[in-house]
Structures are given as C-alpha cells and as structure tokens.
C-alpha cells in the first residue's frame, strides 16, 4: 500500500471504541482479577492504578504518535522514523510479543465459547461451587474440546481481519462495547448484594502493604501494559489508521479510563462473589470461570430465567471483548507481514492464523496431557504469559519511552500531540518529562529489583 491509500478509521467514536476494544478484553475480566487475587488485593490495585497513570497514558500517547506519524506497521514505523538504526528491533520484538500473546490468549478466548455452550444449555443450574471447579478443571485439561474452540476463535478473528479495518474492526466494537459495560454494571450490583460479599469488598479496598514486594510491582506493571495493549506496537499500528484530526492525548485518556473502569468492575463482580461462596481469591487463571456461574445462580436464585439470560449474555459479551482484542493483536502481525514482506493481506493473515493455531494448541495441551513438560518450572501456557506480560511488554514500554523522550525530534512529537498547533496541549511538558526520566527509571528499577540486584 502507498502512503495515501492506507485504510482509516471512519469516525472519532470509532477510533476510541476500536482502541478501547483492543484494550478491554480478557486482560481486564480474566487476568486482572486473578493477578489481584494472587498479589493480595487492594495494594496491588493501587500500584496498578499508579502504573496506568504514570506509565500507561504517556506511553500510549507515544505509541499513538509514532504510529500516526509514520503511517506504517510497528516495525516499519521505527524504520521510517529512525532509518538505518537498531530501533526497528523494538517494533520486531512487539510483533513477536503479539504473536505469542495471541497464541495463548486464544486458548482462554476459546474457553469462553465452551462457557457460552454451557450457559445456553443451562448446565450451570443447580450446581455447587465444588462442581464448577471440577467441571472447569476437567474441561481445561482435556485434549480436544479446548483445542476445537481455540481453532474456531482464531478463525473468527481471521475472518474479521481479512474483511479490513473499518468494516470489520470498527463496526463490531461500536455495537458490543456499550452492551458489555451495561451488563458488567448490573452484575457488579448483583455480586455486591450477595450474602457475605463484604469480605470481598474489603479485600478490594483495604491495602495490606506488608505483603508488597518487587514481584507485586512487576506484576502490576505487567498487568497495566497487558491491559492497555501497550509495549508491543498494537496501538501504534491502530494509530497508523487514525486521521490527522484525532486528538491523541484525549484518546489515550479515554481509552485508559474505560479500560480501568472495566477492570475495577470485573474486580467488583468477582471478589464479593468469590468470598460469598468460599472460593479462594488466589485460584489463578480459573478464577472467573469458577466464580461467575455462582454469581448467576445465587444472585438470581428466585428467578431462573434471569440467571439464564444474564449468563448467556455475559459469556457472549466476554467472547466479543476477547475478539476485539485478538483482532488487534492479529492486526499487528498481519500488517507487519503484509507491508514488510509484500505479501497480500489475505496470505499474511493466513500465516498468522496458522502459526497461532499451532502454538495455541501446544499451550492448551500444556494444561493437560503436557503438564509435565516445563521450562523454568512453568508450563508453556504460563511461560508465554510470563515472558510476554512481565518481560517483553514492559521492555517494549521502556524502549518506546526512551525513543520518544530522547531520540525522536521534538518537533514531530509536538506536531502530533498538538495536531500541528491546532490543539491546546496542557500536559506537554509533563509528558516529555515522564517519557524522558520517570518511565525509563521506574521500569528499569522494577526490573532490576525483581532480578534481585537491588535491595531497597
Ligand atoms: N489488552 C488486551 C486485554 O486486556 O485483554 C490484551 C492485549 C491486546 C494485549 C493487544 C496486548 C495487545 F497488543
């Protein structure tokens, strides 16, 4: 594609919804609650919020301006803005991270399809918490069913990617995102009203600072990057389809606020309910899949029809939230192959889909028959999650902030952030200060501390 015939998002709302669609997904509803549960609750959430505000929003503006200015895929963007330098490796690392995340993320996205099936056939009715745990464990560790769902999910992503940016990505986000918000708010209200839910609220609101260590910081930072789709060029790729009048700072704030709001709502749904029925908050990746069926059955125990309708709607919307995120990861890798290797979009997309299917199947099997094969003590699924969320994304964020803060000509930064001087930019100096000093130092310190070199 030449510079001028690149696709664009059609409207401002479309820009925000598509970017928020990438950000809001399993990271908020599945990963945020279990990371919060594993790392002690409220203190983790406060550190997470600080990471979103201090690191997330400035790095998001950075990705936006790099993408819109270069109007290229993420590796191509660095090539254009810093020709002949090693900066292109930042883009390439992002593409690799996107590919790896898409592989294991699709496994969980596939689980949501199984749960749609369970909800539609009313299989949750009349069961206890122990039954839900048993059902989930035997499903997720079985060989065939999760693999079939994962393949179907990747095919759905593939289909939308091949249809193109505006028709596929923007349209689906516009309809489904508002529906998801409304349902989450209703479910949070239901969960809080369950008997014994107070302990869950306390877990969410009362920080226990003595449990905080370097790992909690690294996990909160990783979660912020993962949830905001940062550090791997995803929002950079989306911004390459933004129009010249899109307000980058405002979009970054809107996306981050929406994303954080959904994560907190997910916490407000999961923890009150988990404490109410006696499920441990540190149950790990299975947490939402064993807690939510309880919310539906208990909160609406007198009105089974409502329990049925809400559970079907919830899993459908969860699958859609996952889909708008898998589309964005797929787009990063597809745009890269399409533009850098001159493959047709269709062929590029097929390579990505095929590759992710292969790795995704291995990840899925690593939770069942392959659970004894571990690397650094982690099965493949957990290894992919660890390497991407806790290493590659923060490292990508570190490089992006140094690139914009120190390397990139400030005239370009100013032009993009102020839309060629047409916008009043209140936070410009703060933005540059954070990108130059705060973000690189904070991310490096967290890495170094986690590696054990720093005793604070
Ligand atoms: N932000 C997505 C979520 O929270 O589910 C996951 C994700 C999408 C991560 C795109 C990274 C990415 F580039």
List keywords for this structure.
transmembrane; Amino acid/polyamine transporter I; Na/ntran_symport; 18 helices; mainly alpha; binds 4-fluoro-L-phenylalanine; 456 residues
What can you tell me about this protein's structure?
The radius of gyration is 21 Å and the shape is globular. α3 crosses α10, α3 crosses α18 and α5 crosses α7. It has a single domain, classed as Amino acid/polyamine transporter I (Up-down Bundle). The protein has 18 helices and no strands. The N and C termini lie far apart (about 50 Å). About 75% of the residues lie in helices and about 0% in strands. Bound molecules: 4-fluoro-L-phenylalanine (PFF). 4-fluoro-L-phenylalanine (PFF) binds next to α1, α2, α5, α10 and α14. It is found in: Membrane. Pfam families: SNF.
What fraction of the residues are assigned to beta strands by DSSP? under 5%
Structural class: mainly alpha
Q: Give start-end ranges of low-pLDDT stretches.
A: none
Rg calculated over all Cα atoms: 21 Å
What fold name goes in the CATH topology slot? Amino acid/polyamine transporter I
> What order do the helices and strands follow?
HHHHHHHHHHHHHHHHHH
Number of strands: 0
Overall, the morphology is globular
InterPro entries: Na/ntran_symport (IPR000175), SNS_sf (IPR037272), YocR/YhdH-like (IPR047218)
Protein name: Transporter
Subcellular location: Membrane
Pfam families: SNF
């Amino acid at each position: 594609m030449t510079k001028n015939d690149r696709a664009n998002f059609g409207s401002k709302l479309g820009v925000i919804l598509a970017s928020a669609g990438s950000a809001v997904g399993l990271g908020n509803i599945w990963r945020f609650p279990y990371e919060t549960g594993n790392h002690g609750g409220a203190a983790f959430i406060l550190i997470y919020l600080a990471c979103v505000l201090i690191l997330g929003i400035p790095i998001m503006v950075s990705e936006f301006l790099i993408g819109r200015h270069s109007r290229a895929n993420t590796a191509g963007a660095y090539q254009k803005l810093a020709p002949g330098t090693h900066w292109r490796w930042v883009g390439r690392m992002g593409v690799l991270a996107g590919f790896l995340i898409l592989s294991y993320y699709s496994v969980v996205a596939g689980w949501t399809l199984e749960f749609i099936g369970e909800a539609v056939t009313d299989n949750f009715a009349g069961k206890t918490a122990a039954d839900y745990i048993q059902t989930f464990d035997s499903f997720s560790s079985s060989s065939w069913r999760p693999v079939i769902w994962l393949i179907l999910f990747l095919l759905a992503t593939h289909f939308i990617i091949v249809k193109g940016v505006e028709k596929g990505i923007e349209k689906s986000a516009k309809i489904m995102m508002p529906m998801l918000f409304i349902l989450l708010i209703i479910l949070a209200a239901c969960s809080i009203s369950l008997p014994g839910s107070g302990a869950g609220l306390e877990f969410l609101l009362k920080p226990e600072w003595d449990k905080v260590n370097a790992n909690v910081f690294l996990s909160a930072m990783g979660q912020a990057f993962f949830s905001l789709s940062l550090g791997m060029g995803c929002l950079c790729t989306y911004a390459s389809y933004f129009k010249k009048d899109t307000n980058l700072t405002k979009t970054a704030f809107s996306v981050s606020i929406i994303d954080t709001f959904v994560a907190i709502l997910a916490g407000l749904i999961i923890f009150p309910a988990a404490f109410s029925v006696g499920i441990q908050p540190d149950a790990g990746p299975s947490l939402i899949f064993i807690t939510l069926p309880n919310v539906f059955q208990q909160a609406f125990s007198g009105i089974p029809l409502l329990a049925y309708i809400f559970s079907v709607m919830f899993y459908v919307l969860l699958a859609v939230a996952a889909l708008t995120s898998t589309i964005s990861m797929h787009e990063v890798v597809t745009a890269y192959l399409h533009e850098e290797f001159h493959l047709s979009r269709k062929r590029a997309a097929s390579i990505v889909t095929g590759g992710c299917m292969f790795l995704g199947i291995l990840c899925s099997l690593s939770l069942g028959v392959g659970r004894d094969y571990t690397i650094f003590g982690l099965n493949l699924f957990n290894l992919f999650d660890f390497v991407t969320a806790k290493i590659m994304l923060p490292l990508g964020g570190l490089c992006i902030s140094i690139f914009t803060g120190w390397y990139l000509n400030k005239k370009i930064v100013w032009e993009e952030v102020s839309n060629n001087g047409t916008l009043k930019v209140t936070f410009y100096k703060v933005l540059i200060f954070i990108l130059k000093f705060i973000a690189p130092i904070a991310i490096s310190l967290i890495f170094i501390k986690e590696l054990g070199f720093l005793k604070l």
